[in-house]
Amino acid sequence: MRIEETGIPGTYVIEPEHLPDDRGVFYESMRSDELERSAGVLFRPRQINYSVSRRHTLRGIHSVSIPPGQAKLVTCVRGVLRDIVVDLRVGSPTFGAHRVTELDAASGRSMYVPEGVGHGFLALTDDTCVCYVVSTTYVPGTQIDINPLDPDLDLPWECAGTPLISDKDAHAPLLAEALAAGMLPDFDIA
Q: What PANTHER family does the record point to (predicted)?
């Protein structure tokens, strides 16, 4: 597998090596030992979540306060999505920067999102299913939500028409509001 940093510190795209034969294809989606060896990341899964979305569904930008923090490995297991990560860590050299990656079931490509980096996606097909392997279990009241349509972030969702978005995400604070309210983690503890 190939593990490549995205330009946002600690955030990686993981490309599996496909082993095709007459029956189909096999690949290792993630190996914690390879992530640790290649990137110095110690990732120990504690919970696995799935979301299933209609085409043009926009989810995010989501993160978790530190503590408890939450790193995640995001993989599209059915369909296609436009994945966007945003650096929410105050003091990071890439604070507010984003990275766009297309994830699809056929490639098996995954995004490793470290603690303090926000994540969201736009489903490009109906019945898009996303698997989130996360480093901590759900703790109510620790979620950090940033409005994915924040004009200052100007994220390239490129949605044809109006995206389907939850009330929670549509009314989430803008990045500047979250920063002013002290909701965001510091880079040095993320």
A: DTDP-6-DEOXY-D-GLUCOSE-3,5 EPIMERASE, THYMIDINE DIPHOSPHO-4-KETO-RHAMNOSE 3,5-EPIMERASE
